[in-house]
UniProtKB/TrEMBL annotation:
Species: Methylococcus capsulatus (strain ATCC 33009 / NCIMB 11132 / Bath)
Gene3D superfamilies: P-loop containing nucleotide triphosphate hydrolases
Highest taxon above the source species: Bacteria
InterPro entries the UniProt entry points to: ImuA_translesion, P-loop_NTPase, UCP037290
Membrane-traversing stretches: none
Lineage of origin: Bacteria, Pseudomonadati, Pseudomonadota, Gammaproteobacteria, Methylococcales
Protein name: SOS cell division inhibitor SulA
Length: 207
């Protein structure tokens, strides 16, 4: 019995995807720093989960959600990986992105004619592509089966998927789920779900 216990313990220690709820400090899954020290301090392992989906629930468009992700965009494009925008509600303003230090030569904007039929398929292909580092998408809502496929695609390639939604889907397979609210001088983030950590934290960010 002791031998079996040691074997199981070794397996748990070797696999960073396994989280033991009473030991949040053992979470070792790959992450990319968010560029915001206050946010990294409450995210498991200190950053955005790589090879996974993050769901960002926004009450309205244009409240600062893109400024939140500018450090991540700079890092992804600076590393030579592809930064893909899928069905954005507004055309990305290239001069502002350049001024913020984003290498737009690594950026791709994808329009989706039939969102109901093609959006999930498009996101899955992009997340699986080996050159993709980050996918930003505005699906608003997706069925659970599509969330599962997208999570598998991101895990396969190591890409990050940032999906902006209205929160109507409830439980999703996203590794990280957070909601945004406006506060004086910036945003307040509330962690609703964090794989490998505890939820409920509120983080004000001056952007």
């Amino acid at each position: 019995m002791a031998g079996k216990t040691e074997t199981l313990t070794g397996l748990l220690d070797r696999d960073p995807r396994i989280w033991r709820g009473r030991r949040p400090g053992t979470w070792r899954a790959p992450v990319i720093p968010s560029g915001h020290a206050a946010l990294d301090a409450v995210l498991p392992a200190g950053g955005w989960p790589a090879g996974a989906l993050t769901e960002i629930i926004t009450p309205a468009q244009g409240i600062g959600e893109l400024r939140l992700l500018l450090p991540l965009m700079r890092r992804i494009a600076g590393d030579g990986r592809r930064l893909v925008w899928v069905a954005p509600p507004f055309e990305p303003y290239a001069p502002a992105l350049v001024q913020a230090g984003v290498e737009i030569g690594r950026m791709l904007v994808v329009a989706v004619a039939d969102r109901r039929r093609d959006l999930g398929w498009t996101l899955e292909l992009l997340l699986r592509h080996p050159e993709t580092g980050l996918v930003l998408a505005w699906p608003w809502t997706l069925p659970p089966s599509v969330w599962r496929r997208l999570q598998l695609a991101a895990a396969e390639s190591g890409a990050l998927g940032m999906l902006f939604t209205d929160g109507a889907a409830g439980g999703t397979t996203a590794a990280l789920r957070l909601s945004l609210g406006v506060c004086e001088g910036g945003l307040e983030l509330r962690i609703l779900k964090a794989r490998g950590g505890f939820c409920g934290a509120r983080v004000p960010l001056m952007l």
